[in-house]
């Protein structure tokens, strides 16, 4: 039976207003302000009428030059990756120490939390279609590079069964009693716990902790500070997301940040009007303020999740309607749990299925993989590069640890994020730029690099798919985005 969300009909007018596409003028103003706030004058965003918004060069760029570093609007580390990588919940840089990263991972793996928070819909609901390439001297993704020693054997991270370390060693790594040789060369900021005490979120600095708290975490923190009913409801919502699709956690962040922005804007508005006496505050939704709070999300290109999600290969077209209905039901299940946890009467339209579906659909159509290279990998590569006798001495200590980590030693931080500027970049099968993490890019920002020289005024394009694939395959992949590509390469190769 079709899931019915009563808020959809109750708030139909407000929902229609929130989902109406922004005018070209609103687009221009919003991105102009965003770019000025970031002191970025080398690109502009405008709506040219062909494919909606696009990003254009405001200066000339040379080949390999940095075009853009884009700070995410919202991002999450994949649930399954949280065991392997201990990162700041705001900027996603690695925190703690090499020893803590390793000890924590081995401890959690030992506990049986083996990263199998099964994502039932993983094939069909991948919300990060665009990937970040990573830097390496040979142009390959160095996150997974294995090194070979003199006699051609893989010198570490082999596929053999993992060797267990004594519990005492794991504990000593975690609590800092055991120091690994040369680990000081790979220092990381100490972990700052969440101010709400949830024990789930940690940060690289108090400023990151405060920024996350202010922007969204204060509403979705499961720490002792929040009342029991709310905490239990949040925990149910999080469990459901971990068991089905962690994109729901990202949607919860988007909704929380909109609610918090709404209340801040309302407060400011009342102060400006001189109404300091809070007893006069109405608890009705002020649509003008809600639309302003929603603006960063309103700007993203979006369709409903269950309408735009690609049909998985194993679902026949005769089952398509049932499949889309299943996705809609799943979203409704998640939304009901979130509503129980953080419902806000003044922001009621945000808890409609229509809005929830569009937020997830926006992630589906725009998100970029969140990738941060691991300093643990760098550490073992460093040890491997040492020469006799330092290498032998160090390896006496590091070898059993590497054997315990197995081939997972190099796992990087992985997640998905929405980037306000990168998501305005249109696709081309002969792109002039690409998302590419350089050696120095060690946080969750998106990095866009010029693939060739780009002239002022040219549109900056990236490829959403592997542009080296044959024409038919590219078009099939791009069908997931709901468009047929008409870039020069496709026009030329069209049969
Ligand atoms: C990530 S968004 C890019 C920004 C988008 N133009 C906007 O207005 O926000 C992706 C969407 O832009 C449009 N688009 C991007 N590249 C395109 C292309 N080469 N041909 C047709 N449509 C394209 C499609 O609607 C696609 O789903």
Automatic annotation (TrEMBL):
<keyword id="KW-0479">Metal-binding</keyword>
<dbReference type="GO" id="GO:0008270">
    <property type="term" value="F:zinc ion binding"/>
</dbReference>
<feature type="domain" description="SET">
    <location>
        <begin position="41"/>
        <end position="465"/>
    </location>
</feature>
<dbReference type="InterPro" id="IPR002893">
    <property type="entry name" value="Znf_MYND"/>
</dbReference>
<dbReference type="Pfam" id="PF00856">
    <property type="entry name" value="SET"/>
</dbReference>
<dbReference type="InterPro" id="IPR046341">
    <property type="entry name" value="SET_dom_sf"/>
</dbReference>
<keyword id="KW-0862">Zinc</keyword>
<dbReference type="GO" id="GO:0008168">
    <property type="term" value="F:methyltransferase activity"/>
</dbReference>
<protein>
    <recommendedName>
        <fullName>SET domain-containing protein</fullName>
    </recommendedName>
</protein>
<feature type="region of interest" description="Disordered">
    <location>
        <begin position="116"/>
        <end position="155"/>
    </location>
</feature>
<keyword id="KW-0863">Zinc-finger</keyword>
<dbReference type="InterPro" id="IPR044237">
    <property type="entry name" value="ATXR2-like"/>
</dbReference>
<dbReference type="Pfam" id="PF01753">
    <property type="entry name" value="zf-MYND"/>
</dbReference>
<dbReference type="InterPro" id="IPR001214">
    <property type="entry name" value="SET_dom"/>
</dbReference>
